[in-house]
Amino acid sequence: MLAYVAQYTLNTWDEDAIHMGLSATDTWQERYYDDVFTGIHTLRLAFAQDEKDSTDLVFIRIEYAAQLKAPIDVVVYAAQTLL
Fold first, then answer.
1. CA–CA distance from 40 to each of 1, 16, 34, 52, 68 (Å)?
2. Model's pTM, two decimal places?
């Protein structure tokens, strides 16, 4: 959904990179995996697991231009309530 907002074409390589990057993350130790989706818009992302291998929770920090607030809010709402 975030790639769609950025109008970025997410591919298998991106998915693999995020999956591999998450393996060394931990929110409690402030270790995040950084990534950027650059399409028409740019989203700077930071992903981290709640605690390494202890839960399925993944935290995402998102930096984006002000005009993207409404679609980002929809994505965050969907992720928190529907997934």
1. 14, 23, 19, 34, 11
2. 0.85
Residues 22-58: tens digit of each pLDDT: 988 999 899 999 999 999 999 999 999 987 666 778 8
71-79: Cβ within 8 A, 24+ apart: 71/5, 72/2, 72/5, 75/1, 75/2, 75/5, 78/1, 79/1
